[in-house]
Amino acid sequence: MFAPELLQRRGATRVDAVPHDVLSALESGLLPTVNLTEFLAVRPARLLNAVLQNLSLDARHAPDDEQLASIKPMQRHRFIAAWLYDAIQPHPQRDKLAHALATHTSDAVRQWAVLWLERVPEMTLAQRLKAVRPFAADGHFGVREIAWMAVRPAITAELPLALTLVEPWVIHHDPNVRRFATESTRPRGVWCAHIEALKTCPSMALPLLEPLRADPSKYVRDSVANWLNDASKSQPGWVADLCSRWLRESDCVPTRSLVQRALRTLEAK
User: Fold this and answer.
1) Could you tell me which residues come within 8 angstroms of residue 87 by beta carbon, excluding any fewer than 6 positions away?
2) 68-107 residue pLDDT tens
3) pTM over 0.85
4) How far apart are alpha carbons 57 and 194 in whole angstroms?
5) All residues at 6 or more sequence positions from 37 whose CB lies less than 8 Å from its CB, including other chains
6) What crossing angle do the helices spanning 159-166 and 125-136 adopt, rounded to 10°?
7) Cα distances (Å, whole numbers) of residue 201 to 111, 133, 169, 180, 188
8) 8 A C-beta contact, residue 227 and residue 246
9) Residue 269 DSSP label
10) Pick from 222, 142, 135, 134: which is nearest to 182 by CA?
């Protein structure tokens, strides 16, 4: 059991400032991170070793610190996820082990679980989206970001179908699920390949955007605004016209704040 102040910590602002007891708990898989600094401070090989021991799995051939040192920090977790997938697939209790990873206390471990979706080429898009949905609703921001990144290539590859499949998500009761629909389809996005079809024809995604123009969640509205800001860089007239219509039809504080954020690039010119 951890002290309340440890569970309610705000998180260090520098990697070298993460307290030893916090880092030890993070690398033991006993605590989730609270910010990106803590995530970067965790040595993935140590966390992996702790997870393997906890699950009574052989750790002798697991990636170690020396092997991971040559890999970029954010790619180390993808490398571990791939190693874990290959190691667990032949295990007679692979489904039980997969569940243990997907529900683990550590957000980094849950990210490994969602990254497994990149390793299963035989899944249909509908199956892939169904599998990612619990991670899209995850309580940790890091897991939610990895969730949309893990399926974005599949969404791009079958864009018209993907837009149809995620359309019901925008009326889901969970704002994290609603936000996934827009964040995963942003025309430009962050740390990911662009979706050229949506840069050219953003109106394809209008059924996702319209229901969220006055969403009660700022988290969702910010994603919609960022989506439109992306689109404004290639289709400025369309975005300007859409925002003008929204202000006429939904003249309320949530919509006004969304539109202001959406037009930030256009108004800066």
Assistant:
1) 57, 58, 61, 62
2) 999 988 899 999 999 999 999 999 999 999 999 999 999 9
3) yes
4) 39
5) 11, 12, 13, 14, 15, 17, 18
6) 50
7) 32, 26, 21, 20, 13
8) no
9) -
10) 222
